[in-house]
Specification:
By secondary structure, the protein is of the alpha+beta class. The chain has a single domain, classed as Chorismate lyase-like (Chorismate lyase, 3-Layer(aba) Sandwich). 25% of the residues lie in helices and 34% in strands. Strands 1, 2, 3, 4, 5, 6 and 7 form a 7-stranded antiparallel sheet that branches. A hairpin with a 2-residue loop joins strand 2 and strand 3. The longest helix has 14 residues. It is globular and about 45 Å long. 33% of the residues are buried. It is found in: Cytoplasm. InterPro entries: Chorismate--pyruvate_lyase, Chorismate_lyase_/UTRA_dom_sf. Removes the pyruvyl group from chorismate, with concomitant aromatization of the ring, to provide 4-hydroxybenzoate (4HB) for the ubiquinone pathway.
Length: 176
Amino acid sequence: MTRAVREAARRWQRAPGSLTQRLFAWGGEVRVQRLVQAVQPLLPGEAADLGVAPGTRCLVREVVLRVGDAPVVWARSVAPASSLQGPWKALAGLGQRPLAALLFVDPRVSRTPLAAHWHGRGSVWHHRADEAWRAAAGQPWPANVVAARSSVFTRGGVPLRVFEAFVPGISGPLMR
């Protein structure tokens, strides 16, 4: 990963607010390609971030965000399955709409500070990003490292963890 690509990733990792809105401001059309929405096992770090036991049943939603036809972000959202009867019940019916539609319009939703992540080849996170990217784009994750960020949103005392991984080279005018 070149220095310029790494610095572009760092800007994305620190960018506040809605990623969907940032992508829309840059490229106009943002489309959500839903890959997974099911109860699945948690990946490393998710249980701790959510404050739940590692075996807790959680709903996992994975999507790829596209600007035009170009896939640019792989995102994974995780919430305790029990929250689908409570504060995050709208998550079940989100479909192809961006998660931002739930997170940034409700004043009762709070967010933890963004955490930056760098997951190398061989890690569980790189493996999962690679699987998702192959399903969405028909090719492997295009780098040896997954540069990403995560934060936890809370509504009604119930957490929802959002992880967003940026395709290498996403930079330039996008960060205006």
